[in-house]
Amino acid sequence: MEIDQSLIARIAAEVMAKVQKEAGSGSRGMGIFATIDEAVEAARLAQKQLRKLTIEKREVLITAMREAAYKNAAILAEMAVNESGMGRVADKVLKNQLAARKTPGTEDLKTEAWSGDKGLTLIERGPYGVIGAITPTTNPSETVINNGISMVAAGNSVVFSPHPTAKNTSLHTIRLLNEAIISAGGPANLLTAVAEPSLEATNAMMAHPHINMLVATGGPAVVRAVMSSGKKAIGAGAGNPPVIVDETANIERAAKDIIAGCSFDNNLPCIAEKEVIAVGSIADRLIAYMQKYGGYLISGQDIDRLVKVVLTENAELAASGCTEKPKRTYAVNKKFVGKDAKYILKQIGIDVPDDIRAVICETEADHPFVLEELMMPVLPVIQVNNVQEAIELAVSVEHGNRHTAVMHSRNVDNLTRFAKAVETTIFVKNAPSFAGIGVGGEGFTTFTIAGPTGEGLTSARSFTRQRRCVLVDALSVV
Ligand code: NAD
Question: Where do the Aldehyde dehydrogenase domain residues begin and end (predicted)?
């Protein structure tokens, strides 16, 4: 009897898929490996297979990734909040859906061409190969979905290094996306990771000779690490977005938008409003409206009590001329990052209803709530005399991150002056910060905003190399 080879291959593939699916519910399988060497090698082979597919097929795989991510948005959101102890499930559902729907695919890879007497010259966008993507705890599934779609659209495979505190959520997202790719007829292991992510594993990944590009989404340390790796690196770092409200703004709308933006996912997004700078003549009205839309105002000793709860203080001696005076430095108490305003207020003995979305307080410009990236719904408001003072202060407290800034104003000159001065990657006018990543604003989304290395809002094209192809004396048809 003759054996049908294609039938055997199909059965073997089905059995393999079943085995991998079962393994996927444990720690290994579906892109998850014991060691970095295995994860990199599997991703390297997968990328070779991806290169053999047409761009049309690549788009089929991306459609399957989008569908899987969208379908599982709620489960992933629930997992992330349970595992990391940060954020709001309903907001994370939206973020997962956003990443699934509004991350650009292969249409982002535009060819440039010159044609003329000498023929035709093209610049096309080719993949790097295997990308090492380091992802944060604050947007674990969102970043894997967003980076995964963008990087595969560009023809790469990815070895992810997720934050250990969001390990299960990140690995589960990787498995789901791999399952979707395989069921759409794509190669296994386009996305990989190790079962036990750690700093050591990330360092081994960064140093691996078969990792062709590094992409870090996180705080200053990891951005520094990839930028000093000697490899092509994209760094998407910390922000401390200021929001200015001047006397020409629609004050009620500004207050509503600020509370919405600052409390979205409990202030975890790097783009979220972190401090308000208000021109004095409208500040009281702004604060009153912020209270109307879910802000809870604290003052005096309650602010001092909150400082002691959400920050840890180190007094350091700093030389200043010939006198020595203590300089205070603060670090954010991670226990409160991404927690509900209600929970945070409870720590200082204040009980509030569930609809309180943010804690607001008036502070001086040099208060640690202004200077530190808190990543929790605690929002300081600073009064200044005029818009020029507001702009100078906002530029200073943004710390040169060149990340995100927001302004509520109906004066085009003021808007323009602030946008020019602050030089941020994202500048949002008269809307919540999240409009800057395509929620209620035009444009695509990303969860990797590369200010330090300048790619801006990353998309497929950010993960490509330019390749020039020159044909002389032919193919120009005019
Ligand atoms: P984090 O810096 O603690 O961790 C981010 C990732 O980097 C994790 O995977 C972590 O394991 C790894 N990491 C940290 N230090 C490292 C080092 N020295 N070497 C190698 N790997 C290292 O940040 P987080 O708490 O997960 O996320 C919050 C931070 O990320 C905030 O500062 C936020 O503004 C920033 N962020 C930026 C963007 C952006 O697009 N620019 C997006 C999300 C978050």
Answer: 35-433
Task: Give CA angle at 235 (392, 36), nearest 5°.
Answer: 155
Find out whether 308 and 330 touch, Cβ atoms under 8 Å.
Answer: no
Three-state DSSP at 55 gives helix
SS3 80: helix
- Domain edges within the chain: 5-237+456-471, 242-441
Residue nearest (by alpha carbon) to ligand 1 atom 13: 222
Residues with CB under 6 A from ligand 1: 134-139, 161-163, 199, 202, 217-219, 221-222, 225, 236-239, 270, 373, 447-449
Q: Under DSSP, is residue 262 helix (H, G, I), strand (E, B) or coil?
A: helix
Q: Using alpha carbons only, how large is the chain's radius of gyration in Å?
A: 25
What distance in angstroms lies between residue 135's CA and the mean position of ligand 1's atoms?
Answer: 7
| CATH no. of 242-441 | 3.40.309.10
pLDDT digits (tens, 9 = 90+) for 334-374: 999 999 999 999 999 999 999 999 999 999 999 999 999 99
Architecture of domain 5-237+456-471: 3-Layer(aba) Sandwich (3.40)
- Mean pLDDT of the region 183-197: 98
- Farthest-apart Cα atoms in the chain, separation: 97
Q: How many CB atoms lie within 10 A of CB 230?
A: 9
Give residue for tokens 């839309």: 293
Beta-carbon contacts of 478 under 8 Å, excluding residues fewer than 6 positions away, are 115
- Dihedral angle sign, alpha carbons of residues 333, 337, 343, 349: positive
CB-based contact 247:414 (threshold 8 Å): no
Compute the distance from residue 222 Cα to the ligand 1 centre, in Å: 6
